[in-house]
Amino acid sequence: MALVKLQSENFRNLSPAPVSFSPSINLLYGANGSGKTSVLEAIGYLGLGRSFRVSRHQAVVSHGQHKLTVFGGLDQGMSGAEQKPSSGELNHRVGISRDVTAKETTLRVDGEAVRNLSSLARHLPVSVIDPGVFDIVAGGPGKRRQFLDWAVFHVEPSFASVWQQCQRVTSQRNQILRNGRIDDALMKVWDSQYTELAERLTQARNETFRLFTKAFHSLLGEIDAPWVDGLKLDYYVGWDASQSLVEVLRSHREQEQKMGHTLYGPNRADIRLRYQGRPVAETFSRGQQKTLVILMKIAQGMVLSDLGKQVTFLLDDINAELDVVHRAMLAQKLHELRCQVFVTSIEAPRPDELWRHTMPEYRLFHVEHGKLTEEQEPG
Ligand SMILES: Nc1ncnc2c1ncn2[C@@H]1O[C@H](COP(=O)(O)OP(=O)(O)OP(=O)(O)O)[C@@H](O)[C@H]1O
């Protein structure tokens, strides 16, 4: 699916006027503070249910307001095995409202209220590449789990519900571990639920990680960068995988009790990135780390694309982070994968720098005071 219509109310400084986008490439430019990132953030809200910039919904609601709404019109875009071009008809209408006073989120798909965010999010796989994305390599395991789980969610339909159940059971288990005296019979019940859910989560992650590494290595074969030899990606399941989780929990009960929370399981999973045996975060230059993240993001796009799903990529301010060669590599690949792409820049964009071989069709927008105006030619 591709997002071809967007309308928001009380979303940062954005104008409430509806905007039509291309199911392929959209270039947005405008001065600092004009609202470019806010447009991407509003699109991200529909695909992620939250802002990719801030954790508090409050920050996103226009000053002086208490409720924001974002509506999106989705079109089949360039997805599907046949890669048919857009018909111009809307396939789905999705909406999300957040009342920050009542702390309530309302979700709608095709006019019907839905309870789960996953019902909305699975229609619009949104992948963000902004200055914060580089934490996937430089940051902690949580960022890499989030990265992996985004793809697992779109590959395995039952993942979201298993993940939620596992979070609930983990928190119950933590409560018991925090209590001074543990009722062994009760702990056994929670452990059996926990390990069953953990195994299901791990299986889903394993399968997606397998697809991801396959795509990633095929991508490495295409690029000319000697430093990728010796690069190794491993999925750490969250415990010593040579033992069953049940055994690990049994042999570490005292340690968990002392710490007062669960120490082994899917909440400790990680993608371990190593270069010649050492963590890439310690070995790679900043530029190499950035390239690696971009390649990982493209590989995720390849996985979904192979399943006939179109990813909407939100590229925010990449000029500040990537040199022209890497920007062009990214743009070219995303176009080949038939992804929908939104690219922001301060200066009028140079599509000829991004797509050097074949120029895709694109739509160009100037952003000013939260309002988008379509232009025919750059400048
Ligand atoms: N909750 C809010 N209500 C109203 N306006 C807001 C709110 N939050 C931020 N703004 C304003 O919205 C504008 C848009 O910010 P945004 O980050 O989208 O701009 P940008 O075009 O991406 O800028 P830059 O190029 O500097 O990154 C800014 O002027 C900001 O001060």
Q: What labels describe this entry?
A:
single chain, 379 residues, alpha/beta, 21% strand, binds adenosine-5'-triphosphate, nucleotide-binding
Mind explaining what this structure looks like?
With 379 residues, the protein is of the alpha/beta class. It has a domain at 1-125 and 309-379: Rossmann fold, CATH 3.40.50. The chain is 40% helix and 21% strand. The protein has twelve helices and 15 strands. It has helices spanning 36-48, 117-121, 135-138, 141-155, 159-178, 184-220, 245-251, 253-259, 280-283, 286-306, 324-336, 351-354; strands at residues 2-9, 19-20, 25-29, 67-75, 92-99, 104-109, 112-114, 126-129, 231-236, 270-275, 278-279, 312-315, 340-345, 362-368, 371-375. It has a six-stranded antiparallel β-sheet with strand order 2-1-4-5-6-7. β14 and β15 (371-375) form a beta hairpin. α5 packs across α6 and α6 crosses α10 (286-306). The chain is globular and about 70 Å long. The two termini are 30 Å apart. The model has no long low-confidence stretch (mean pLDDT 92). Adenosine-5'-triphosphate is lined by residues 12-13, 30, 32-38, 61-63, 346. This is DNA replication and repair protein RecF. Its main location: cytoplasm. Keywords: ATP-binding, Cytoplasm, DNA damage, DNA repair, DNA replication, DNA-binding, Nucleotide-binding, SOS response.
